[in-house]
Amino acid sequence: MAQKTTPATQTFVPIKEITDDVVVLQNGQLCGILLTTSVNLALKSGDEQNAVIRQFQGFLNSLDFSIQIYAQSRRYDVRPYLSYLRTLESTQHNDLMRVQLREYTEFIKTFADDVAIMKKNFFVIVPYHAAPISQGKSFIPTTFQKNTDTEVQQSFNKSKEQLNQRVTAVASGLQSMGIKSARLGSAEIIELFYHIYNPSEKGNAPRSE
């Protein structure tokens, strides 16, 4: 009886590679990702809320391509802050301040253990459908496939230019509404997807040598 094999995790992930600040999907689509600030409508008056909604509607209508908005909630890692407080305590010469820092550090640690402190990030994913790439080909050329991969690289560069124009247009539209944005680099994109697929993990994504 043939032994049943378990599919590799990668078969369920639509990402082919991440290069040059671009996510390349298995179907050839390219994506750029913007990290954005947010607008708290609850703190605005009714007229201000309507104005923001109209601005956002106008922004969406100005685009001739689709975008995806992703809100990520992650448990906030207080360990770096606790480490900072302990360092501050060790360098404090005033006995009273040192005691207060120690008590405050213990309070933060206990509070974080008892209550899930969440951090919310907002992302805008900008896609561009590139020309189809031969099955199994990567956008990154290798020494042994110079001719074919040169064409692939040229195709990637052209598609990336189109994607960059879209990302710039989206960032400009968001800026007009008072929403700041910053494009994620390759390392930051890897970090983002690592925590999407490993939500319980804390700290940074492991780096391959």
UniProtKB/TrEMBL annotation:
<dbReference type="InterPro" id="IPR058596">
    <property type="entry name" value="TraC-like_dom"/>
</dbReference>
<protein>
    <recommendedName>
        <fullName>TraC-like domain-containing protein</fullName>
    </recommendedName>
</protein>
<dbReference type="Pfam" id="PF26593">
    <property type="entry name" value="TraC-like"/>
</dbReference>
<feature type="domain" description="TraC-like">
    <location>
        <begin position="20"/>
        <end position="197"/>
    </location>
</feature>
